[in-house]
């Protein structure tokens, strides 16, 4: 019988490209931002040095203004579009390696705490200098978020491109994307559909809008102030804000552990602003938290996984906990594996298309973390156990059909392997 834990470790080794990990071969041949953060936590369950190296390679791509880009192009590859020739960030960011010009969810701070807790548990005092370096990079990144993506101090950070959200093709962005033109100067040479069935991927018209946005920001020469001013897509995203708030709380914990008193006041101020912003986004109709379209001024009342992610940062009242629990159970009713990324009763639900219904192991990981934080451990344990079971049945796929449990997207996926390792250890510890 195959040892699934060993198989998960083998996936991470297979996707190792010399200190950094690609999500999977071919489909995603570079280092991705939040992928690497999750992957580092998977490595930390058995190889803390390699876990630190994952984050250290990632911060090589950090911009001078503090931004963590969403892709780092360590080595060339023609199996992914758009590559560095489309982004053209070298015009304003000469530091090597080349990168994309947008960002992704700031899981980095969460990962760093996870790694440092492992260091403390194992008595690895030699990791202190490495920890300080990574902490400073994380703090610079958080400063960038508050300066570049919340200039009005709402306590809600914005995404300027669906790719930044991580949930690229979510129905939550549909209405805002309609305003984005489909015209492009760049020839679109999609590579993803050469690796994965097109029925599982974004539609061509969506890709045209994605690339149009890249061109808008490229013409701004990736200047954050100009991008904010010219953005045709601008969403105050509760998923992004929640992850940033949770990561900020984790940096506060680390600053206390490392006696970094100078950073504590700044981090406390950031954290309170973000918590206040998130609390303002509770929506009784959705029975969750909703993002805000900053261009139209409208709430985004689409039932997607985004509604539940704020649990990782907030302590809900009993009223909110009750409704969140009932809503998650409703979404999972009749599903082989929950939690779907779009509610199955929504007209936007597609069980196999990218971020429009399928289940992601890392999203379940985040939501389960939030449920545990909010005294809903029993539901969290069910979700974690079902996630482990579907991986053991279907393999380390990118995502899963919630109705059938079928594995979808890319295969031998790094963050799915990492999620398995972390969730398996968590249930064992319980």
Automatic annotation (TrEMBL):
One of its GO terms (molecular function) is Glc3Man9GlcNAc2 oligosaccharide glucosidase activity. GO terms for biological process: oligosaccharide metabolic process; protein N-linked glycosylation. Residues 28-416 form the Mannosylglycerate hydrolase MGH1-like glycoside hydrolase domain. GO terms for cellular component: endoplasmic reticulum membrane. Keywords: Glycosidase, Hydrolase. SUPFAM superfamilies: Six-hairpin glycosidases. Belongs to the glycosyl hydrolase 63 family. This is Mannosylglycerate hydrolase MGH1-like glycoside hydrolase domain-containing protein. It comes from Adineta ricciae. The lineage of its organism: Eukaryota, Metazoa, Spiralia, Gnathifera, Rotifera.
């Amino acid at each position: 019988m195959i040892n699934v834990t060993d198989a998960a470790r083998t996936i991470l080794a297979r996707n190792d490209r010399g200190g950094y990990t690609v999500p999977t071969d071919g489909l995603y041949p570079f280092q991705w931002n939040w992928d690497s953060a999750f992957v580092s936590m998977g490595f930390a369950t058995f190889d803390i040095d390699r876990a630190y190296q994952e984050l250290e390679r990632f911060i090589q791509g950090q911009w001078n203004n503090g931004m963590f880009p969403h892709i780092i192009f360590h080595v060339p590859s023609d199996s992914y579009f758009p590559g560095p020739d489309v982004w053209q960030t070298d015009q304003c960011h000469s530091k090597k390696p080349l990168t994309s010009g947008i960002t992704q969810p700031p899981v980095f701070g969460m990962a760093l705490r996870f790694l440092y807790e492992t260091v403390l548990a194992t008595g690895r005092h030699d990791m202190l200098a490495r920890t300080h370096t990574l902490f400073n990079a994380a703090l610079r990144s958080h400063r960038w978020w508050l300066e570049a993506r919340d200039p009005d101090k709402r306590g809600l950070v914005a995404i300027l491109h669906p790719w930044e959200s991580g949930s690229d093709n979510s129905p939550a962005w549909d209405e805002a994307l309609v305003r984005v033109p489909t015209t492009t100067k760049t020839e679109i040479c999609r590579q993803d559909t050469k690796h994965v069935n097109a029925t599982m991927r974004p539609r061509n018209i969506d890709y045209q809008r994605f690339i149009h946005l890249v061109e808008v920001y490229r013409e701004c020469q990736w200047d954050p102030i100009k991008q904010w001013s010219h953005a045709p897509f601008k969403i105050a995203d509760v998923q992004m804000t929640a992850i940033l708030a949770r990561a900020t709380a984790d940096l506060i914990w680390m600053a206390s552990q490392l006696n970094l008193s100078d950073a504590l006041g700044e981090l406390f101020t950031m954290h309170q602003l973000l918590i206040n912003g998130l609390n303002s986004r509770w929506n009784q109709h959705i029975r969750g938290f909703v993002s805000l379209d900053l261009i139209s001024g409208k709430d985004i009342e689409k039932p997607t996984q985004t509604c539940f992610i704020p649990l990782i940062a907030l302590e809900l009242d009993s009223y909110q906990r009750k409704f969140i629990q009932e809503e998650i159970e409703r979404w999972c009713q009749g599903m082989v594996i929950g939690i779907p990324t779009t509610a199955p009763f929504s007209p936007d639900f597609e069980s196999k298309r990218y971020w429009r219904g399928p289940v992601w192991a890392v999203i379940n990981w985040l939501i389960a973390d939030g449920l545990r934080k909010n005294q809903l451990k029993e539901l969290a344990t069910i979700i974690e156990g079902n996630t482990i079971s579907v991986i053991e049945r279907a393999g380390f796929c990118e995502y899963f059909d919630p109705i059938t449990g079928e594995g979808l997207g890319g295969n031998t996926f790094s963050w799915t392997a990492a999620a398995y390792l972390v969730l398996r250890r968590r249930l064992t510890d319980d």
